[in-house]
Each structure stands twice: as structure tokens, then as C-alpha cells.
Amino acid sequence: MADAKVIPFGEEPRSKRRAKRTGTSRTNRAPAPLAPVPAQRDEEQRPAALPAGQAGQAGPGDSGGERAGQGGGWDRRIAHGLSFLRRRVTGEYDVDDFGYDQELTDQVMMSLLRPFKEKYFRVEVKGIENIPEKGAALIVANHSGTLPIDGLMLQVAVHDHHPAGRNVRMLAADLVFMLPVVNELSRKLGHTLACAEDAQRLLERGEVVGVMPEGFKGIGKPFSERYKLQRFGRGGFVQTALRAGAPIVPCSIVGAEEIYPMIGNSRTVARLLGIPYFPLTPSFPWLGPLGLVPLPTKWTIQFGEPISTDDYPPEAADDPMLMFNLTDQVRETIQHTLYKLLVQRRSVFF
Fold first, then answer.
1. Which residues contact 60 (CB under 8 A, 6 or more apart)?
2. How far, in whole angstroms, is CA 346 from its chain's centroid?
3. Is it the case that residue 340 has pLDDT exceeding 60?
């Protein structure tokens, strides 16, 4: 299998440059209408009835061709899938300097994660308009759930609900990139190491970056301390946002705490395996692989109003008191929103 072509950092994929030169792609041009069409047409308007013998014909306004016997729609899907596989086999796809594969993420990874967001956890997204439509932004969220499923659901929520369809570049712990299969998938999804250098490069590029400052302290806390935010480190994320002039968007996630209720922690096993904690839940490890199935809780992800940082002078990033105050402001905003969402929640599962 051929290797993928790596895009120099900051350079756009060839497909995007080609689209800019031509103005529109061949596949997106609509066929010439057979009859004059009004300048403005309601997309939801459909003829009340079709003449006999024309029930299977598609008119100029039909979008998917599914009215033409459904065969045309399946033909296009199969052709699209074969074209996608050919590009993967021949290496004719683009990745950036961090290993992010946008085509694989949009067409495969998001399609696999979307059913969990929509059907299993039934994630309700609020305040998505607080994420800017363009330019850099740093999303700061609480972390919980024993396994980092909340980071994946956050990424899918922004991708599917944001008007501009923005992708979140999550910052992950070094343990993620030490696992054989998880390492490759995380890179493809756009995740990168949780360090100030990588975060600042992404923000300066104009990306939306996601960080969960609680780290293992948040994701591995006992169930008795659910929805109580742990320490936000030394405020390094604030310093990075100040240097990049990127707004900080607080994010509160309710529902992840209950998917794996952590009632115990086997520190001996954790030391033997070289991991921060070894969770004991009502189902794991007692039920074996079945214990890894998360509980189908009802989730809510709410994005708060952005905290602007571009009004501060460049030297503000080196002011420890300012970093402490901003870190505390972000943390208190997330904690207050968590309490408010918990009061509004009817039950854990509905």
C-alpha cells in the first residue's frame, strides 16, 4: 500500500486548491433545466401529483436521484465507495503534519461515531453558536467517564452541529499515542499530544482545539465525586490561548460520568500494567468483555460564551496572576453550568 502524501504545515490539500481555481466542482453542477425555473424556489415544495407514467422520473429539482428507482442513488454510492477505496490503496489522499486525515475522518470515522452520539447517548448540543465560524478557538471541557469517550462525542457534536462543520483537534495524553491501534486512529482523527507547542501551532493555524485540563484526575475519579471538577493543572491552556490570541470556549458535558460508574481502583494492577488507574465498576472486570459496554445515559453538551483573549498585551502570557484568574474563571464557569444542567436533567437515562 502506498504512503499518503504529507501536506507541509499550513498548506491546503490539492482538492481545496483545485476547487478554488475552478470555482465549483463537476459533481456539484446541476443539470440544465428542461423548462424555465423561477428565480426562487422553496426546496420543500413538491408537485401534488405526477402524470401517469412519470412516477419514476426525476425532475431538475430532485437532489439525490432516489426517485429514479433508487438504483441511481445506490450506483453513485457504490462508485463513491470504490473511488474512496482506490485512493486509500494508491495513497492519493492528504494528511497534515500531525497525521490528520480529513477525508477518512469525515467519511468513515464520523460515520462510525455518529450512531453513538445520536442513538445511544442521544447527545443534546447547546450553545454551538459560541464557537466562531472561522479562526482559532480553544474549547475547554470537563473530563469524566473512566474511558475518554466524552472527547470523541465532543468532536462529533461540533462536526455535525456547527454551521461551518468545523473539526475539533483534541489534545490527548501521551498514553494514547503509546497504544498500537489507538495511536494511529487518534492521529487520523486529528488528535495530537497535549503540549503547549502543538496546541499553539494549531491555534496559530486557525484551528479549533479541544482540551480537557483535568486529565487522568478527572476521567479516573471515583463515582462518588462525579461532576466535581478536579484541579485544572497550572493553567497552561490559558497561556497558550493568550499567546495565540484565541478565545476560550468553556464546555460542560453531562452524562459521561455514569457510563462506567467507577466504584473502585486496583492500584496494584494499574502499576503492573503501567497505567494511571485500573477501574472497578459494577460490570467490569466481573462480566469480562461485556463489562466494557457503556451504560446508555442521556448526554448534554453545552458550550458557554467565549472568553476573549485578544485584548491582552503579548506579555500577559507571562503574568502568573492573570493566568490563575482566567483559569479559575473558566473552571468556575464549567462547574456552575454542570450544576445547572444537573438540576434541569429529568433522569440519568432519559
1. 30, 31, 33, 34, 37
2. 26
3. yes
